[in-house]
Protein 1
Amino acid sequence: MSTQITKEESAQQTQEKPVVPTNSVHVPGLAGARLPRTFKALQHRNYRLFWTGQLVSLTGTWMQSIAQGWLVYLLTKSALNLGIVSFSQFLPVLLFTLLGGVAADRFDRHKLVLFTQSASLVQASILALLTLTGVIEIWHIIALAFVLGTINALDTPARQSLIHELVSKEDLMNAIALNSTAFNGTRIVGPAIAGTLLGAISAWLSSHFTLDSDTASRIAVGICFALNALSYSAVIVGLLLMDRRPRQANSNHESVWRSLWAGLDYARRDKRVLALLSLMGVSSIFGFSYMTVLPLYAGEILRVGPQGYGFLMAAAGLGALSGALILASLGNSQRKGLLLSIGNFVFPVMLLVFAQSKVFPLSLIVLVGFGWGLITQNALTNTLLQTLVPGELRGRILSLYTLTFMGMLPVGSLQVGAVAERFGAPTALTLGALICLGFGLFVWWRWPHVRALP
């Protein structure tokens, strides 16, 4: 029997075979839908469940962040207390993240994330109950913030490591990029929803019931906490619906402390890695800590209330999202070191303008620029570290990146809260911006090879 295909048969097969555009990908289980290759990782069912649940959950997380800051402001009117609450939430990252990484390597990551997400649901529910019943006090918020930070210290390395098990190797980078997009996208939507709800619910309660404005605002805050608790169910359901394969136990019994020292020693000896990690640490302490005093700006300087507070957070998120999308479109041929240096200068300059601004529209605009500069620095630092370090040390170096970024946030929260309490929020942010700008100039002069990195 001949295996030759006639021209007519070939033409018929060409007509019958669907043509998939080169810039799209077929997504099984979505009725033959095709998505742009930007969303290629969503073709994997388990990752699609995970990513969709994260969209819902992260929106709720940002809502709780906005509502928590506003509640602390309502209860205490204190910049120092805002700093203490933020310190309590991020301190466990500094203390326990390395242990969380060990847990992620030694236990089933799927089960670990299921546990941490369930624990976060319980934490948000307790916070909502205390707030709605009117018994909430500042020490409750501080304690529950520490609990949430401890959960996050365990959850973050496990959740990031889990992505490797949800997609194929060739789609891993796309999945990581989509996670960043989800984080920054919900950073816009969550605060905007929270700010709108806080303003609308407070106004409705004040007009329909004999409640003072602070009580009405407290109830609105409690509703935001409850909605965040509900949002965790999206991740939990997605995790339960996943198709799972048994995971082999990790047979590596090397001392945790010995492995950690090897990573620290490498970071100390490689000047490029040292410069990048130093930039992250300074930016985290003196730049990203602006979030701690943002409720004061909304309430006392710009006088835009909780809704304006939400839009201020959303503006920074919009800048961060645009920065992430721009970086995703540039590819690997760009000069990442030079673009990183530009981000190092843009975000402190924008922070300087914001610190002195008393005009709400101007503040929104400069926060967009601030968000762009900060995410450009952060994302490129992460990318360059993964490129520079050898594979066997990548996890430990990235854990140092996490520590210098998130682990330094409690230090930044305390310093900005204390300075703002003594000298005012504008002075605190101005000082931090000048330090970040000065250190960026120092890196430009002292480590010129950083801006030359490919």
Protein 2
Amino acid sequence: MKTKLICSDIDGTLLNKDRELSTRTIATIKNHRDISFILISSRMPQAMVHL
């Protein structure tokens, strides 16, 4: 079965200890543009725009 969608939490999952996306994480997501990617968080949407 082909993966069509990935949902991921942000804090403690995608963000590193400095609360930033690593270059590796960014590259991995960009290399899979054919898969929809949804950020899941209890943060307000405005607090995720920079990601």
